[in-house]
Amino acid sequence: MLTISERLYKAAQPVWKECHEHPFVKGIGDGSLTIEQFRFYLLQDYLYLYDYARVFALGIVKSKDPKVMQLLSKSVDNILNGEMKIHRSYMERLGITEDQVFQVKPSLKNVAYTNYMLAVSHAGGIAEVLVSILACSWSYAEIGQVLAQAPGAADHTFYGEWITGYASPEYHSSNQALVELTDKLLEGCSEETYQRMEDIFVMCSRFELDFWEMSWRLES
Ligand SMILES: Cc1ncc(CN)c(N)n1
Predict the structure, then answer these.
(1) Would you say the pTM of this structure is higher than 0.95?
(2) From the candidates 83, 136, 142, 204, which is the catalytic residue?
(3) Is the dihedral of CA 40, 141, 143, 17 positive or negative?
């Protein structure tokens, strides 16, 4: 029998396949993505990650289990001081200051995605919080792993740092902890609850695809 996370993963496969095949993702992998497109993505993603960290923080508020609270607070730290280090390094390379990022307006699709995660998490419980962040964390772990396997991709002078960041054992294990926690929280849940979770997971996966597309087209 499939675990809850395996069922969620299977349900989102058609959308994840489109993410893997998206020209933006392929372009990071083969180095053909323009710096202009990456710069646009970087700025939007930097803003996105602050709201994403807020969703984890909401999980701390919603949880009564000290172990879950510890894991989520570690995740907040991983995002703000780990994952975003990659962004800050690229900002330095591209001559962008944090003040300049905050002058950028988040795009419509960026706002739609973060507002969706925040709304679902505010209205729901700890399981809704976990499932709404899972597609984000998991799809990037998978994209990082796939791109890192292409010969030379991880050593690319510009995109290599992005690829190695998301393919790193640290990123993989923090994502794995979220997958396992989701299974634990939803073990033995009713079919009705599962369907609600699947809707959230697939919706967030669609937002992921939209984020790549928006960045490819520089849609602000
Ligand atoms: C839009 C988006 N989705 C996911 C990730 C990976 N945390 C990210 N940085 N940005």
Answers:
(1) yes
(2) 136
(3) negative
